[in-house]
Protein 1
Amino acid sequence: MSVIVGNSEFRPLPNNPGAKITGVHESLLQECEKDIIWYRDNFFGKSHQNYLALDSPRGPLAISVIRDADTYKALLRTTAGSERLSVSSSSIPTSFVRRLFGLGPSTVNLMEGISRNIPVRSLRMCKEPNLPNELLSMEERQVIRSYKFGVAYVAPGQCSEEEMFSNRNENTSPAFKQFLNFLGETIELRGWKGYRAGLDTSGSNLTGTHSVYTKWQGYEIMFHVSTLLPFIPGDRQQLERKRHIGNDIVVIIFQDSDVPFQLGSVTSHQNHVVAVVKPEGENYRTIVAPKNGVPGFTPDLPEPCVFGQDAVSRDFFLHKLVNGERASYKAPSFAPKISRTRSVLLYEVASKFLK
Amino acid sequence: MSVIVGNSEFRPLPNNPGAKITGVHESLLQECEKDIIWYRDNFFGKSHQNYLALDSPRGPLAISVIRDADTYKALLRTTAGSERLSVSSSSIPTSFVRRLFGLGPSTVNLMEGISRNIPVRSLRMCKEPNLPNELLSMEERQVIRSYKFGVAYVAPGQCSEEEMFSNRNENTSPAFKQFLNFLGETIELRGWKGYRAGLDTSGSNLTGTHSVYTKWQGYEIMFHVSTLLPFIPGDRQQLERKRHIGNDIVVIIFQDSDVPFQLGSVTSHQNHVVAVVKPEGENYRTIVAPKNGVPGFTPDLPEPCVFGQDAVSRDFFLHKLVNGERASYKAPSFAPKISRTRSVLLYEVASKFLK
């Protein structure tokens, strides 16, 4: 074990002896992307009903409902997330009188049949033709297509965050440079047109001259590399470095040291997953430690958790980090922020169309 | 030069001394994906006009038109491809009488203003509410999300296609096995749930027990590896191998031989891009030779064209191959097939809605 947990909030994940290092076999779609596909395939461009609530016991919400043969399909969007629902039309009661007039179930019966806890009394139907577009673009705004991961170099003899931010790039080892090549491409920041992750690309080099970047499975990943960020002599905390890496949800610690790393020295509230990578010859022994409250995430780590530098190992490692960031959004420390964002987006749409 | 061109149809691409090995910086969107985005963003879910032709001087076609402020936007779908068009409404003549009645331009004036050569007389407007969905799904069916590339092992002393198909897997070199690891993951075919590229995944092992696969930038790539396909003793041509690799548009030749490879020995009509990879220590010296008629494709090859085994080199190499396959679709030997597919798809939609 090359980390010390102490009273840190981070806990190393157990290795799973049945797990294997594989490439990406599963779908990488995010929940909001699945919502978009569900809405596009089943509702958009077809005659369907939309209900909005500006202010309900569950906050602002938007519900889309369509009857498709013997099934009612619905997309229920709340501040907590979206639910894709299907119910048989026979399970929804329709009064004798409504049936007599060839009508479907009442809104109250329909909503209660689709899902419990829909605040029916707060809903208002909205027939504005532009609403479906707005609902879709609201979901689109939640799709995350870029990631920023911190990478910190821990020199021989070091074991804490403060020490690691003090390292100069010219003093890093060849193994670290090789690891950066494993992660991605060293790009020049001046004039960089891709995802910049808060780095200065104006040519003023305020955040260093180069960074490490990759496009992986269609996602852009920028690495905030501690030793490529500016070193300010005399600044004990190296705030210019901590400002970026302290704001990353996932941080990779490259442990070029035989002293166990103190997880307790990682104190930023934003950091949720720490991956400690220790070079062993050409391989990387890896520990992944999520913060308390981050739910489990795939892929499971093998036993021993040692990666090569091959393409499959790299896919596995980046897959674990991307999923670690996605799982972090659900942590109690993070979920309220996501929920607040959804709340604002839902409120914007509802207030625009329920004038 | 480690290939002999002779009277082959393949011509090695020149190296570009200004080119660099980089990761994927540009968009990988296919033209049909750009068409889908253009239609979704500008037409779908909004009030717009669709015109169909079942049989016109340009074959079946479908045109979508929308007025957006002072601009007419159109998507013109023909058997040759789609055009995304924008024209200022002021450039389209509208007769005095039509203006008097608050009408827009006539269909003839509109179409002539949008693009020359639209066979206006063949068009019929279609207001079926389900048409936009069908137009979108027609485009969706043209998006290619999976690729199959051939990989053939050329043993020391060999120089032709026939020889290379005769190699047994147990006689390949460690360098070749390392190259397969560079390309992707060796997966078991039995029960494989991903893209299978025509291979047998039933468990009968009719096409061997394993293959090499990767998910790259969201695309699935299956490699048809010559020595992992069944070896049939006594079959001089090894048709079980040639049947798969001969049907691949892109074929990688792993040249474990100092004898120059004879490009003329690659005779399959389907093969359009040959990449000859020669191991040099831990690196790969590479020649990419497209067939006559394949238009140019990015990224440019550097001088010297030598790749490492790092992630950036791999991204560059796979990027070149994917773009090589995409460029091949435009070759005279291939374009008619693509055009015929589009023709069938357009005819299906037009005949369904112009009953």
Protein 2
Amino acid sequence: MEKGLLIVLSGPSGVGKGTVCAALRKRKPELIYSISATTRKPRQGEADGVNYFFKTKEEFQKMIQNNELLEWAEYVGNYYGTPIEFVKKTIDSGEDIILEIDVQGALKVKEKFPEAVYVFLVPPSIDELKNRIEGRGTETADNIKHRLSMAQEEIELLKHYDYAVVNDKIDNACSKIECIIVAEHCKRFRFIENKTKEGV
Amino acid sequence: MEKGLLIVLSGPSGVGKGTVCAALRKRKPELIYSISATTRKPRQGEADGVNYFFKTKEEFQKMIQNNELLEWAEYVGNYYGTPIEFVKKTIDSGEDIILEIDVQGALKVKEKFPEAVYVFLVPPSIDELKNRIEGRGTETADNIKHRLSMAQEEIELLKHYDYAVVNDKIDNACSKIECIIVAEHCKRFRFIENKTKEGV
């Protein structure tokens, strides 16, 4: 049977990863999304195994020790991470899974899971981003410099990715990501892998 | 400006390259198709630069000598080949161009144009192909053996391609090829190439 794909969707903060993911969920309800583990308390309406895998601090630390996370980080006193097991189970069942994650997290995932498909959401125009930062008029020259170098650093990280998808319009970005998934399934090496497994 | 892509669509004889190409033309009228040069005489209704570039034997031989063909072959006394110029012009203008060609021709093209996107149309099932060849009941054991080894050889050539598209249904195959084109335009290295050219 053909294995599923892990699609890592990332990009600089503010590029619209969450919005694009929400739109993808609507367009392709059959796509599975990676569920994070966290030590933060569930909010009203949140269910374990749906919104998050809710863990105690001790459980989470054990997951770290046992190498059960693709990546993890601490954020305002709570741990957040991506459990390997859910990703592997999904892929092994032949289904694709999407992981929406910041650029730092994506790089950590790549170390453990280089065979995933890495998609970088790009702001519509780097020039525009530059203009926006410079043109706000509310920031000091130092701040502008810092933000520009941050943006430059984030764009630099693009080199670790397989695909660059410009988020000019949400529907355009979704269509492109959907096509990337289809095309990746057609990659010759995957086809040959599957045929070899089937013994043909 | 972003360059166009050369998409080489190939596969074993009988897989349905022509049918898929004709369907693609209908679905995507904006796609440009490579026009072959030939020394065969125009048939009624055929126009130079539309169906073929019609050449004399001398002109064709000069094209061979001047390295103006991506590939060429002789077939029942006539030359057929793919002029480089038309392909390059199209790509440089930012448009994609599709070249439908047999597996032998595609390999020759790859030598001169490795940066093209190589798509291999695969019969719905290799098992089925096997059954079909064995099940015809009209062929000698030697013929069956020969056909099976031919099919095996053709499938072996798949390793030179970027993508394998199973031609189970024409519409499926077309959708996949369309997605491959979209995804290839999103390839990170192309994006960075273009940004570098734009000086961003």
Protein 3
Amino acid sequence: MAKEAKLRRSARLADLALRLLEEPGRTFSLGQLARTYGAAKSSLSEDLSILREVFLRAGIGTIETSPGAAGGARYVPGISRERAENFVHRLVEEVTRPERILPGGFVYLSDLLGRPDILRDVGRIVAAAFASVDVDVVLTVETKGIPIAYAASFALGKPVVIARRDGQITEGSLVTINYLSASSRSIRTMSLSRRAIAEGARVLLVDDFLRGGGTIRGMQELVREFRAEGVGAFVFVEGPAGSGRVVEDVASLVKVEEIDADARTIRAVPGSIFSRAWPSSPWGGLFQI
Amino acid sequence: MAKEAKLRRSARLADLALRLLEEPGRTFSLGQLARTYGAAKSSLSEDLSILREVFLRAGIGTIETSPGAAGGARYVPGISRERAENFVHRLVEEVTRPERILPGGFVYLSDLLGRPDILRDVGRIVAAAFASVDVDVVLTVETKGIPIAYAASFALGKPVVIARRDGQITEGSLVTINYLSASSRSIRTMSLSRRAIAEGARVLLVDDFLRGGGTIRGMQELVREFRAEGVGAFVFVEGPAGSGRVVEDVASLVKVEEIDADARTIRAVPGSIFSRAWPSSPWGGLFQI
């Protein structure tokens, strides 16, 4: 009997973990959970405390509980400082491997953008950094930003919208903007279906690589066309600033400081999302756990 | 003391669940887990049995354990029949909403492809259906197939490679093929970096929408150029067959049978991945759990 109760509790805890992980950010009412599991609210509160410890120790975020009769619990995705630092240091090592240097001073990143293990932690870092800004939707422009957008989406539990480069979209009426690519000094286009973003939505702008910042600025403009609000911007890798940036306040995961194609060396450091990750900054949420 | 032991066990079980979920398909040695948790192998075996029940009941796959001194455990992602059927019925309802009909007989699906809750279950269904073919890498062509590819990737724990439509890729030497789009009767192009797929890799081909099948056939050709092997093909939605298909054996999640733009009706049913999902078929893995 004692053993059975013990087993039941273990199983309930694991099931509760799955349920919370499946829908990050969603608040589950304590009363509803108590009915689902046929358990007392007090036992569930105890379960949630244990789970919080487990999640924090694993470095994947925390569980927030709200007290009272209408009390509930939700999984707040995030990442511990230790896990984030280990991750970004491995990433910097990866990014600076000389065989990544491509003609024209580009860096081969596609393999990293294809790996679900990397994207999972990227998503957690984005979720932690933008926890306080209450994102409704993640916006990117095809193609290479898409993996980063989905990484954020899976962690935040919020949808992705993808702006297209060509106007050849069979998606009804479009909103199209032309913008200046700051690095290539050429006019580029991005289009999005009129129904893709709701008025007033809080939009996180995401891309794979930041050069001059033209694409991010283009996204900001596109968001305004929808009467929505850009609440943050994130890139996987930030390149050398070169002849300056047309946007400020873009959080990056890795910052490439120098690419020397002749010497075949890349120098990189952890990106701005880390240097800003302190309580007094807008990215203060990152390492609260 | 008894209580403390109970708590410790609950926490261990939840932590084990997180660990297994994080790396689908990876085998963890029982000995290693026992050392990590400072627990006896017999207790861990018991934990794994409980977790297996919890995973099966949640309908998200199972835990396989191998016995013996070198024994281990791994999370095999999948989906229960009940969960898959509920999911696909909701999806069919969504897809057939009249406001999805676009000029030219197209169907607006981008919002569905943007939703992480939908993509999670899509990934589980793909993982279940292709469990027996041992996928190394998931291939898609930009743009709309990419979310489906990442859904599969997150569930399977395997990387994604994305073929590009234009040759303007800064990724070193490319493999490019031209192929005939069976539906639009035009020549199209797909390119992939020479380093993107290893020789002999087992490749799952993924796209959002199947019309004539030209794109899937193009991907098959591309895979052969890498001396790799296409081990399966999956699309989110299969359109009306119209004037025939140039490929066979593509698994689909939803099958649109008819789009009547004038009457503003779409007729759809669960796709071929379900009709084939029986033990005697290649998709037999789908509903074993």
Protein 4
Amino acid sequence: MFKKTLLAVSLAATSLISTSAYAIENVDLLIKNATVLTMDQDKTVFDNGLVAVKGNKIYAVTDGKDINEYKAIKTIDADGDIVMPGLINSHTHASMTVFRSMADDVPDRLHRYIFPLEKKLVSRDMVRIGAQLGNVEMLKGGVTTYADMYYFEDEVAKTVDQIGMRAILGETIIQFPVASAKTPEDGIKYTLNFIEQYKDHPRITPAFAPHGPYTNSTETLQTIAKLSLKHDVPVMMHLAESDREREVIAERSGGLSPIKYMESIGALNSNFLAAHVIDANDEDIAILKKHDVGVAHNMSANIKSAKGVAPALKMFNDGLRIGLGTDGPMSGNTLSTIDEFNQVAKVHKLVNKDRAAMPPINVIEMATIGAARALHMEDKIGSLEVGKLADIIVIDTKAPNMIPVYNPYSALVYSAYATNVKHSVVDGKLLMEDRNILTVNEKAVRDEALKFADIVRKTVIESGEIVQ
Amino acid sequence: MFKKTLLAVSLAATSLISTSAYAIENVDLLIKNATVLTMDQDKTVFDNGLVAVKGNKIYAVTDGKDINEYKAIKTIDADGDIVMPGLINSHTHASMTVFRSMADDVPDRLHRYIFPLEKKLVSRDMVRIGAQLGNVEMLKGGVTTYADMYYFEDEVAKTVDQIGMRAILGETIIQFPVASAKTPEDGIKYTLNFIEQYKDHPRITPAFAPHGPYTNSTETLQTIAKLSLKHDVPVMMHLAESDREREVIAERSGGLSPIKYMESIGALNSNFLAAHVIDANDEDIAILKKHDVGVAHNMSANIKSAKGVAPALKMFNDGLRIGLGTDGPMSGNTLSTIDEFNQVAKVHKLVNKDRAAMPPINVIEMATIGAARALHMEDKIGSLEVGKLADIIVIDTKAPNMIPVYNPYSALVYSAYATNVKHSVVDGKLLMEDRNILTVNEKAVRDEALKFADIVRKTVIESGEIVQ
């Protein structure tokens, strides 16, 4: 079943020295004896392969026969485990970890609970503490890159910088006063400052994140679209997510769908990432494709809120840029993309009444190179190919739930837990080894989060404001 | 939100000495400083409670204020972690772990792949090796009792006896020749021997397991029903699961539904456990209730096979005996009931278009006391109550995915991984401590399974018989 192709090492590398059969290459990291899922164009799999890393880039991905040609500073023997591109979580609100497990199943939750809760509790501290916990959770779950929308994203940026992950961080802009901005104009200014501060960071991409079309004015959305093109930064937004959104936008636009409305005001382009896209017909999907928009598919959160199942199968088959996201931890409720895998594979089978629909290989595509495409970063991340940034994870295949592996995609999608991730490499640097995070103190992160949870408990639960 | 009630220690205990405020009670195991989810009638929760065990029974469950009244041979400080009844997996085929991740998404899989695969590979060795791995996976995932249907269940019984878990083990009876029996009559004889052998085992309940109504004759089903009443053992069967089943039974019975047919032949009674029950209307559900039948709800497997969503919400609300099951590892594909939690909570919300449907507390009920009811064992297991058998698990609430816990049911259902289970007690005996299984050698179990997987690979995959 699995093609064995030797990648030409020199192929994608302009600045790299190509290897020969006789020279010894000095590399920084070598992962050997691996079941390598490259997620390249041909979905090449090496059963006993290797991945070599030099600096922050992938230097070689091979069938392992050339193992003696590399001399590495650090070698990891995968012992048959799965080695694959780091997972990309294309939509989240990491800082909301500190609110997780609160009032999960109440109707109209966003407007009745979450917005008031945030008004009371969002602060620089909350954002930092929540993001730290979210980062730890994601890194331990195999996420190496995430796309975040929240407030005080410069605080999130500091935590991402510290732990060593990769992120696209979008400052939320919304029509009512929030902790980081009194008005949408203030929010735009805040974002421009943030962009200025982080535009040259090697792992962090600053972005605009208007909350949604119905929670921002047409003028705000148009201003953001223009500024995003001027500064060449992404725009991330919740789109086609809810009935309320459809109603508000239909009233505003004379009956347009949210996606048609966004097109009509000139706010869709190839810098755009739309989260959710549940409420989209074939015409809407064609519009997203036409404007090269990326889509974040958040199955777990969408079905938990009973909003429905996004037409992700069609979007995937139509060749849209689509990746998996977890949504925030008040929605999903976990942040590791692995937790989405089996739900994505199974629920599309259920709603399409077809057990062959959405096979595991497509789910893994949406978690890696598909999500990279959604973020318009497929030239840099999302697959194990020579010259790409070295974001790599190793999955333990000896945990009881993972035995045996007749098909690695099936094993990952139907059996793997986030806790089966063993090692994580981001930008060429080993950030987690044998499930120990090497860059931040996990216990300190946890203790700070638990302390903040006590404040939350006193402020909104014991006061009776949030009824569980 | 959480009631704090001191359970009267002497209440359910006839043979137990009741405690007084001043005496010191010697107990075998004490779990203290716990968030105790009792799953009793009132769903009592103790925020800082304790559970005391004497012999194989629960001796006390309290709010912890009486902590100084117990002297224990072994004390576990839960440090705020969740302590709850051991999970009950009400439907599985544990031995099939050795086939996991094979040909997952092919149409008509049972008849085209699984039956031929089993014909070739089922043996006493296969059953033992697969069950050993399944046991380890389940115990590590918090399952303390499971209901199994397969061949050579006496081999499964030996593994259950060894690891120390609790199980209801049903020998499969089917109309074509299988490894353990040439005919259904042979299968019945095999089961009677098995019953004789295990009828007095403290943790193992032998049972009949006719495969399904459409894969057995009316006569076989009637014989089994009579024998099960005579020997007072359970009957477990796949029921109302597939279109093929409906067609075959309709033809056989002049248009009856599978459930109506089973009633018409006198094969439903309070010894019966029906697995799946997807294809059931209100009338069918009423029949199951009338005959006091238990139901195993296997969400994950049912949606993966695109068979549909069982009307579990209605069955639960109508007061049927209903619990969660995982189905076998070629279906689900994991065996830990925790993996079902979020799918059960979310998919019922989705199909009922109601985010308040199937709240976490009901999911936890179906995983514990509900599943005990489905197995007609609610007087013995399923809740932490004085006098019940001591099957107890401790869930780590300090893993990053579990922080914070504002609502323990929500945290369990929407956030917990099987790997968050820390300790497991079955029949009063500590079987897993800090995720180390104390009764079997996990590595040896794994190695034997991997070795058998190589045989599977050579026999059916490399020969091209199974196309992935």
